[in-house]
Write a structure and sequence with these properties.
alpha/beta, Quinone Oxidoreductase, Chain A, domain 1, Rossmann fold, 2 domains, 7-stranded mixed β-sheet, 6-stranded parallel β-sheet, 9 helices, 26% helix, binds NADP nicotinamide-adenine-dinucleotide phosphate
Length: 337
Amino acid sequence: MPTNRRFLLIRRPHGTPVPEDFQLETSETPALEEGQFLLRNHYVSLDPAMRGWMDDRPSYLPPISLGDPVRASTIGRIAESRNPDFPVGAWASGLNGIEEYSLGQGGGFTRLVDETAVPKITNYLSSIGAIGLTAYFALLEVGQPKAGETVLVSGAAGAVGSLVGQIAKLKGCRTIGIAGGAEKCARLISDYGYDAAIDYRGKSGDDLAQAIREAAPNGVDVHFENVGGEILDAALLALNPRGRVVLCGLISQYNTAPKPTYNVWQLIVQGARMEGFILTHYVHRFGEAVPQLAEWVRAGKLRMDEHIDEGIENALPAFLRLFEGTNQGKMILKIAE
Ligand SMILES: NC(=O)c1ccc[n+]([C@@H]2O[C@H](COP(=O)([O-])OP(=O)(O)OC[C@H]3O[C@@H](n4cnc5c(N)ncnc54)[C@H](OP(=O)(O)O)[C@@H]3O)[C@@H](O)[C@H]2O)c1
């Protein structure tokens, strides 16, 4: 029986998580019963949402219990099995934890039967996983972009934001991305096809509103929000009549107390709509989106950058990259060869 290193939550973080909130524990993997299998996790998806699961408050998933591994999506190979549906050596994924081995009892795990659907196995955590699916459904179903419209995206150089910009272009829209720093803004245009880029760092709310007005002289039809705070307030000021605001994430507030949004009156005067998005509401439709996303990836129409750090002992610094903005694409932790 192999030993299992697991990254446990032992204290609820106040603000930005610190090492004392976690413990790397080593334990034995259990002897398998009939129907069970052991997944050797190779890659762990690090997502901003994990910060919310660390808090003790109602959400779309229960809080992580203290003493449990930090909940995360993983992919890996079946290492031991007493379940014919999950044979040794097969790739599988699931919402598991940051741990070297996850115990499978059948439910909650998916066999990754077609390894050739996408260029890299990690794409199951990025372009055709939760990231691609979020960009696809949140933009197309909630944002309802039409050819010729202007789409503004915050967190535009990140995993979700980079795909949103590219899908909006595929739908014939003009795209404007907001990101932190000159280098990321250059990549918005060179790598993700954005028509214009705005560097939010060092800008006041008024500066941001002015920059958006300059980049979108005809106004914004769809605003895709990943960040919140001053960026959302500035974007609201640029909305066109019947504009749509997709509330996908508010990462600027995940480690702080919520801040007010002042310009919601714009929704009234523009007859506009702001709607929250949560991917779990679209599970029944994943089957229609995955083939389309995979086709775009294979055809080179959708670029997905992945930022892969290594080692389960580096789980916290790798996770914190999401809040520091030092990730260049989908944040993934590799914990096995
Ligand atoms: N609703 C859903 O179902 C769903 C599903 C998946 C993801 N999401 C949301 O989508 C958003 C993006 O997630 P992701 O996985 O793609 O992460 P990501 O964009 O790859 O990484 C997070 C990025 O957010 C930016 N950021 C962090 N703190 C910031 C702050 N205080 N102000 C401005 N920007 C900040 C950083 O980019 P800069 O360097 O540009 O600052 C950072 O690189 C998150 O809000 C997440 O919660 C929602």
